[in-house]
Backbone:
């Protein structure tokens, strides 16, 4: 199976109840050879409508941060979510929904083989880095897991609610650029 076949299989997924209320599966977007992956918790309303990750106001803010450090969802990163379907009313995904969807993310990791994973927000960080991860205290720090560097930054939606934290997030992207220059071969 190639990456496109994985995507086509994911787009018709019925592994959990979220398939009943979704408009679109949000598989993710970007380069299938990206050395850097950005992973959020799950799609919101705009993402569910368009079938693309981070396309609302928070997506525009994410794109600004990416552009500031010469990254682009169209060229050199991959952006996705742990859960591929929007939970009703944007509630947190249930444990059985996480468990049903995590194999899709694992398969994406196998194909993309990122060197760096950036968790967008607390929930993604606590699922992918460790359960007690504190984004407010540990954002921008890197931890190695199985040869991959993981870090987290404040979720773009949280930054829209609390703009005073935008400089903290920007510093995380600057640190990310430095780490990319240190460990990646073809991102820049």
Residues:
């Amino acid at each position: 199976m190639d990456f496109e076949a994985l995507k086509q299989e994911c787009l018709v997924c019925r592994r959990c109840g979220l398939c009943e209320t979704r408009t679109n599966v949000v598989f993710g977007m970007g380069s299938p050879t990206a050395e850097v992956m950005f992973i959020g918790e799950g799609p919101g309303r705009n993402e569910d409508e368009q079938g693309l990750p981070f396309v609302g106001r928070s997506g525009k803010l994410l794109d600004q941060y990416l552009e500031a450090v010469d990254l682009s969802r169209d060229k050199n990163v991959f952006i996705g979510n742990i859960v591929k379907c929007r939970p009703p009313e944007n509630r947190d995904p249930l444990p059985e929904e996480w468990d049903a969807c995590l194999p899709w993310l694992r398969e994406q990791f196998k194909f993309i083989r990122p060197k760096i994973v950036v968790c967008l927000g607390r929930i993604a960080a606590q699922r992918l880095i460790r359960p007690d991860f504190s984004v407010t205290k540990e954002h921008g720090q890197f931890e190695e897991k199985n040869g991959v560097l993981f870090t987290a930054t404040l979720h773009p939606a949280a930054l829209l609610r609390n703009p005073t934290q935008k400089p903290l997030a920007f510093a995380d992207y600057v640190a990310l650029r430095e780490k990319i220059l240190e460990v990646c071969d073809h991102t820049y």
Remarks:
- The helical segments are 3-10, 45-50, 57-68, 95-112, 122-128, 135-138, 156-161, 166-183.
- The mean pLDDT is 96.
- The chain has one domain: 3-182.
- Residues 3-182 form a domain with the Uracil-DNA Glycosylase, subunit E fold (CATH 3.40.470.10).
